[in-house]
Amino acid sequence: MSQFDIEADLARITLQEARLQFSHFDGATAWELGCRLKTAAEARSAALALEIRLAGQTVFFHAMAGTTPLNADWARRKRNLVELQHKSSYAIGLALQRDGQTLETKLGLATRDYAAHGGSFPLRLAGCGCIGTITVSGLPQREDHALIISVLADCLGLPLAELALD
């Protein structure tokens, strides 16, 4: 990925994080969002681990047929990074790539517990900030990220064309 592509994706992810915010979020919202995510993954014939966490508690998890425990572990590692930084795991990974750094050199984080790969995104409540995470694992990282964005945009009634990376 070229420097120009990285900068373009980072700018778009900043917009996504600003626009994709809920006015209300609870367990029922998490369930609806998780079911939408599962349906979207099935439409792509993807085998994914899907996770939604709210205030540090897992409120939705589904390991689709074809996944392995490794998918759930990748989801855990990506989610840990978003819970710590309140930013998209894909954006963090792109910024590290751009700057020639790693999680270990920049933040002292062990890759056993943290992953700067696309597929985890902060759930934000307008006027409140990050209240949880939505995470998928099983596709290439940019596609994991794109799947989350498409489901969030649909759930919030926002036009995907204004938010998608491409």
CATH topology annotation: Beta-Lactamase
Poorly predicted runs are none
Total strand segments? 5
Number of structural units classed as domains: 1
Number of helices: 6
Helix content: 40-55%
Q: Indicate the structural class.
A: alpha+beta
- CATH architectural arrangement: 2-Layer Sandwich
Q: What is the residue-mean pLDDT, rounded to a whole number?
A: 96
**Within the largest sheet, what's the order of strands?**
1-4-5-2-3
User: Mind telling me the CATH superfamily name?
Assistant: Haem-degrading domain
Strand content: 15-25%
CATH class: Alpha Beta
Globally, the shape reads: globular
Largest sheet: 5 strands, mixed
> How many angstroms separate the termini?
14 Å
Order of helices and strands: HEHEEHHHEEH
Radius of gyration: 15 Å
What is this entry, summarized?
It is built from 6 helices and 5 strands.
Descriptive notes:
With about 170 residues, the protein is of the alpha+beta class. The protein has a single domain (about 5-160), classed as Haem-degrading domain (Beta-Lactamase, 2-Layer Sandwich). Helix content is about 50%, strand content about 20%. It is built from six helices and five strands. The chain has helices at about 5-20, 25-45, 70-85, 90-100, 105, 140-155; strands at about 20, 50-55, 55-65, 120-125, 130-135. It has a five-stranded mixed beta sheet with strand order 1-4-5-2-3. Helix 1 (about 5-20) packs antiparallel against helix 4 (about 90-100) and helix 2 (about 25-45) crosses helix 6. The two termini are about 15 Å apart.
